[in-house]
C-alpha cells in the first residue's frame, strides 16, 4: 500500500468517481432537512472519497490532504458545533438554542439555519476523525502529525 | 404480508453471516462476511422505513469499518491464532451451557413483554413523540423529523456523540498513530 495500487484503470475510475462523491456528500448534508441524511452520513461519504484516493495513489505520492489537515478538521468540527451553541448562549438563549441567533428570518428558518450549521460541524468532525483513524491504522502518517 | 417475509429473510441472513464470520479461520474472509452482515443489516433497516439508520449502517458498517479492519489485519496477522488452549465447541463446555440456558429463558421471557413493532399505544409513542410530530416542522423548519429531533430538540446529545467520535479519533492517533518509525516488520523481511 506504500506505493498504492498503481493500476491505470483504478486510477482513472477513482478520478471519475471522487468529484461525484463530493457532490453527493454535500447534497446529503444540505438536503438532510428534507430527506434521509445529514452531517454524519455526509461526513462518512467525504471521508470514504479521501480514503479511496489514499488507497489508489499510495503513500509515496504527495497528497494535498495530509494527516495534519485531517487532525485540524477533526478539531474544527466540535469547535464549530460548540461555537454555535455558545453563540446562541451569548445572544440570550439557552445553549444550542438556535432561535436566539440574530438572523432576520422566520424563527423556524433561523432554527433550520442553526441546524445546518451544527450539521456542518458534525460533517467536518466526522471526516477528519475517520481519515485520522485510517492514517493511524494504515501506518500512513506522513509525519505532519 | 410480503414485508414480514423480507424482514425475516434479512434477519436470517444476518444470523448466517454472524455465525459464518465466527467460524471462518481466515480473518480477511471474516471481515468480508462482516461487511455482508452490515449490508443485510442496512437492508433490514431500509425495509423497516428507518432510512437514516440504513444510510449510516451502509456507509459506516459496510464501507469504512471494512477498510479499517483490513488495515488492522495488514498490521497484525491474517490467521486466527489462540494464545494457550484453543476454545472448544459450546456443547463441550458444560459450565457455559449451564449459564446460557437460564439467560436465554430470562431474555425470551422479557422479549414476550415488549410491545409489537409500530404499536401506537406503547410507552415511547405516548410521551414526547406526539409533540414532535405535531410541532416539529413548524418549530424547527425541518420536514425530516429525524433531523428535527437529532439536531434541534436533542442537539445536546448530538454534541456529546460528536465529542465521543473526536475522542475515539484522538485515542487511535495516540495508540497506533504518530510518526512513522520505519516500515512494519513484514516489509523489513522483504528488504
Which helices and strands appear, and what pairs or packs with what?
The complex is a heterodimer of chains A (145) and B (191).
Chain A: H1 8-30, H2 39-57, H3 67-90, H4 107-137
Helix pairs in contact in A: 1-2, 2-4, 3-4
Chain B: H1 2-23, H2 27-47, H3 51-75, H4 94-112, H5 123-126, H6 129-140, H7 145-153, H8 155-176, H9 185-190
Would you mind describing this structure in some detail?
The complex is a heterodimer of chains A (145) and B (191). With 145 residues, chain A is mostly helical. Chain A is elongated. Chain B folds into 2 domains: 80 residues; 56 residues, no CATH class. Chain B is 73% helix and 0% strand. Chain B contains 9 helices and no strands. In chain B, α1 packs antiparallel against α2, α2 runs antiparallel to α3 and α7 packs across α8. Chain B starts with a helix and ends with a helix. The mean pLDDT of chain B is 84. The chains are: A mainly alpha (145), B mainly alpha (191). Chains A and B meet through α2, α3 and α4 of A and α3, α6, α7 and α8 of B.
Count of strand segments of chain B: 0
The sequence of SSEs of chain A as H and E is HHHH
Oligomer class: heterodimer
Termini Cα gap of chain B: 62 Å
Strand content of chain A: under 5%
- Mean pLDDT of chain B comes to 84
Count helical runs of chain A.
4
**Separation, N- and C-terminal Cα atoms of chain A:** 20 Å
For the largest interface, the chains and their residue counts are: A-B, 60 and 50 residues
Ranges of chain B with pLDDT <50 over ≥5 residues? none
Rg result of chain B: 22 Å
Structure summarized in a few sentences:
The complex is a heterodimer of chains A (145) and B (191). With 145 residues, chain A is an all-alpha fold.
Descriptive key words:
heterodimer, A: 145 residues, mainly alpha, B: 191 residues, globular
